[in-house]
């Protein structure tokens, strides 16, 4: 009986274990749309690569919906596509938090379909060439109970005129949500020490990486095993 129990547990493990399916990286290159607002659903249900916009592996994230929002905080205007210095810099573009003055909150919400989960890997901040100092807090919030499951205060960084990207930090999140749970990534502007903060406060992100998980369909091996186990139980009776 003990052997049968162990055999059944192994087979059920094959059937019920979650499966990491795919990854999508959102790039900032807007093509001809530079300095225009990002659509609210940019990166929604991506299943194929799009040069300069999305890099997709293993089928992408077709079961994850995205919503971009810039309504929180003070003087939050919009997410925008920006060139940020040419084709050799920030993949030719970045996703700018336009008008992101102190206390602004720019958000990206990840909404999975039933039976799928969200994986948040991380992203890169992108500096400018104005020699300003910035500080952000990054929160990952589970929306159904408003619980913050990840948070970090980035160290202050000062953008460099000649190499702005070198000083801007990357944020590693590496969080896998439960199936069906929606998450919101909040980027909260904490500080800007520039004297003209009202006009020179924009900052951007690039290479936003996320993925999806799912309950895998039973493999043929698992199905055969379950059938054999059921037959064994029947024979013993």
Automatic annotation (TrEMBL):
Boundaries of every Ice-binding protein C-terminal domain copy: 214-236
Transmembrane spans: none
InterPro entries: Ice-binding_C (IPR013424)
Keyword terms: Signal
Domain of life: Bacteria
Alphabetized Pfam families for the sequence: PEP-CTERM
Signal is among the record's keywords: yes
Signal peptide from the UniProt entry: 1-22
UniProt-recorded name of the protein: Ice-binding protein C-terminal domain-containing protein
């Amino acid at each position: 009986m003990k052997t049968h129990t162990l055999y059944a547990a192994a087979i059920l493990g094959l059937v019920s274990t979650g499966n990491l399916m795919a990854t999508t990286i959102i790039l900032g290159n807007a093509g001809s749309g530079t300095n225009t607002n990002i659509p609210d659903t940019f990166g929604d249900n991506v299943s194929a690569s799009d040069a300069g916009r999305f890099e997709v592996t293993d089928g992408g994230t077709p079961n994850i919906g995205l919503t971009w929002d810039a309504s929180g905080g003070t003087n939050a205007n919009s997410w925008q596509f920006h060139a940020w210095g040419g084709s050799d810099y920030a993949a030719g573009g970045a996703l700018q938090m336009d008008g992101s003055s102190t206390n602004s909150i720019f958000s990206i919400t990840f909404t999975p379909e039933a039976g799928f989960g969200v994986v948040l890997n991380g992203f890169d901040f992108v500096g400018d060439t104005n020699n300003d100092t910035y500080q952000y807090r990054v929160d990952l919030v589970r929306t159904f109970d408003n619980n913050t499951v990840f948070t970090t205060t980035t160290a202050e960084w000062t953008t460099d005129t000649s190499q702005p990207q070198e000083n801007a930090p990357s944020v590693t999140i590496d969080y896998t949500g439960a199936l069906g749970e929606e998450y919101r990534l909040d980027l909260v502007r904490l500080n800007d020490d520039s004297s003209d903060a009202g006009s020179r406060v924009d900052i951007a992100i690039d290479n936003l990486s996320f993925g999806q998980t799912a309950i895998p369909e039973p493999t043929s091996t698992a199905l055969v095993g379950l059938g054999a186990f059921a037959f064994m139980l029947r024979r013993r009776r």
